[in-house]
């Protein structure tokens, strides 16, 4: 697959598209925001005038958008991508969205004989830049195998969780756990600080002890503990609190429909919602650390 359209060039999509260019692919790009397009064009991408312009005569379409309504709007209906692309074009959506939307888009694609894969990612902006993302796919075995050609360039792991929508279910399970770990890590670090500990020393201890987890290893929420994290850069970039609230909402809807008990996810959702409402929606989700910090 040589000719690829990439739609949605934000914190994640931008570096993912850049890795396709580095691998020698011809990439046509589109975003609603010109500032998101410019660095890709400077790196060799072709700017498309619209999403439909981007997908004309490509082998594969990759999208990386905020939520389900954006993905349905992009792919479905008379003016959607599915109605316009050649039947051999492979469609891959890497956004984190509700499983029902992913299944609806996949069904519309299938009715036209087009392969669609839901392929949400884990690994954050650092993983997007380094090309080490984990892709969590839903779709037929054949479609996911086809997608590997492109996904292997942007990631280190490609999993097939099951049929259409299964990638999204696995992704929200992961993000619910991530939110709980981030809140718990923030709370523990602040407890240590309040009791006179150096957060760097405490982080080093917990990282290799029984409390060790991904947030301590890769994404410490306390400013100054790790150089490359959003916490050490004013909580800019990274994964917005608003997007984490969205994912926790998806997890809670899934829990309701399956009648699963998810009290930790519900509490994390409530905390993140309050954090967003306090004006932190655009800040990285590790800024929940500030919720616990002393103001006196
Ligand atoms: P972002 O807000 O930085 O980027 C989204 C981009 O999509 C923006 O540039 C926006 O202009 C563009 N866009 C929206 N609607 C569009 C449309 N109709 N056509 C073209 N462009 C459109 O968000 P992000 O952090 O890149 O996240 C994207 C997705 O990836 C979300 O679903 C998020 O939950 C998921 N995700 C993010 C991270 C992370 O660390 N940021 C990690 C894993 C998964």
UniProtKB/TrEMBL annotation:
Keywords: Branched-chain amino acid catabolism, NAD, Oxidoreductase
Catalytic residues in the record: 171
EC number: 1.1.1.31
Gene3D superfamilies per the UniProt record, alphabetical: N-(1-d-carboxylethyl)-l-norvaline Dehydrogenase, domain 2, NAD(P)-binding Rossmann-like Domain
6-phosphogluconate dehydrogenase NADP-binding domain mapped to chain residues: 3-160
Organism: Paraferrimonas sedimenticola
Domain of life of the organism encoding this protein: Bacteria
Protein's name in the database: 3-hydroxyisobutyrate dehydrogenase
Pathway(s) served: Amino-acid degradation; L-valine degradation
Span of domain 3-hydroxyisobutyrate dehydrogenase-like NAD-binding: 165-291
Family from the record: Belongs to the HIBADH-related family.
